[in-house]
Amino acid sequence: MIRPLDVATSVLTTVWRLGSGARVGTLGKRPAQRLELYEFEACPFCRKVREALSILDLEAMIYPCPKGGPTWRPQVRKLGGKELFPYLVDPNVGRAMYESDDIVAHLFEQYGDGNVPFALGAGPLTDASSMVSGLPRLGGGSRYRPARQPGRPLELYSFEASPFSRIAREALSQLELPYLLHNVASGSAGRDAFVERSGRMMVPWLADPNTGTELFESADIVAYLEETYALPG
Length: 233
Ligand SMILES: N[C@@H](CCC(=O)N[C@@H](CS)C(=O)NCC(=O)O)C(=O)O
Description:
alpha+beta, 8-stranded mixed beta sheet, 8 strands, about 15% strand, binds glutathione
């Protein structure tokens, strides 16, 4: 996709979701152990969970499960019995679950004030809005492209409503690259540490411990991931 169209369609996705996932909401206790989310970028139900993670200022290990992905999809089947996404593992309560509404409710119950915001709690309206919002992205990140797995997970600073971060997440998703997602929405407690680490408050920012590469700019991140991990075919 040509760059201006790439950005414009990603902005549209954010607009359709009324910017949900741009700001941190009311927070509750913090998880002692890291959450794990199996998902893929274009999935409208997965988007709801990613929005919840941004609003609740939670980081998570993301295991991308694009259609045809040979690595993490089979793991979900092994763990939960079926390939259905999103699938959240919360070691803090010893639970793993399917169903976006259940996951969102769990996250706000455990790590918020128990109240699910309207944008995420409106049932079929939320689902419809999330589905429509993804249309301009033409399924970006939903189909596996052959790639080699990194030795160690990558790290991405992002927040769900950031149009540029979405472009980077789609690339990670289609290449099935696992990454530690640091959400730094407006109001995030993690912003100061992020600025300390990266030099400025701008997302997306990718750190690859396998190569020592750290970079801003979604287009550069996509190009880096392609060059480093995509395989021909
Ligand atoms: N009611 C479920 C629906 C989940 C669902 O249908 N997810 C789709 C992806 S958007 C899926 O996993 N399809 C099977 C696949 O991708 O193989 C929820 O809200 O989590």
